[in-house]
Amino acid sequence: MTEPESPATRIILVRHGQSVTNAGGRSADQVSNPLTELGRAQSMEFAERLDCKPTLFVTSSFLRAQQTSEPLRQRFPDVPVEEWPIHEFSFLRPEFHRNTSEADREHHVVAYWQREDPAFVDGPEAESFTSFLDRARETIRRLATRGLATRGPGGCIIVFTHGFFMQAIRLLLLFPNATDAELMANFRRFHYLNLIQNIDSLEFEVCDGKIQLVGPSHQTDFTLQGAKSHA
Fold it and tell me: How far apart are alpha carbons 11 and 201 in whole angstroms?
């Protein structure tokens, strides 16, 4: 007689609620960009509808992700909280973010992506696309490990993060053999075809030490360098 399988650990990645720059405003910098009133309401609504008992909260260091986590942390005050390097992709030098809106930065953003150079660093305190992917790879490894840790299978890990970071996790799982250059060349196309809106979530599970997407992994039939995804 076969033994029943242990329940998988659920991992829910959540994009922060609407921020000031998402709403067209200006923020002092990328790190301290706060939620709007709508963003706070979205965070409350997410906390109220969550259907699992969390075993761990993981949050980005950026203010908007921290604020998004607050209502759920208040609902479950005994759940441990860890801060991981799961902040948004910081590909522009910080001076381009000071007191600017998303529209103000658009020409810098376009110039960065047109280079298609995963090793390029825009300046001090900016990161390359490869460094960004390495953070996402390390997060996948840590989540898979944590899913088998002492809290045991059947847990529910809630991760408060950012849209590009969620896309990187998803692409790395869909196309594990792609090069950084291939992923960069396709990243924005994938992003716009499969937008992650404020407070949207992606669900994964950890089974036998491996993390995998649950449910619809993408909304469109996407190919990368002519190869079908592994979903």
Answer: 10
pTM of the model: 0.91
User: Which pLDDT tens digit goes with each residue over 6-50?
Assistant: 678 899 999 999 999 999 999 888 899 999 999 999 999 999 999
Q: What share of the chain is helix, strand, coil (3-state, %, to 5)?
A: 40, 15, 45
Alpha helices in 116-154 (DSSP H): 129-147
Q: Which residue blocks in the chain are alpha helix, DSSP H?
A: 37-49, 63-75, 102-115, 129-147, 163-174, 180-193
Largest CA-CA distance found in the chain, in angstroms, rounded: 65
Chain centroid to CA 198: how far? 11
Selection from 91, 85, 87, 141 nearest residue 118 by Cα: 91
- Residue 19 exposed, middle or buried by CB count within 10 Å (0-12, 13-18, 19+): buried
Partner residues linked to 27 by β-bridges? 100
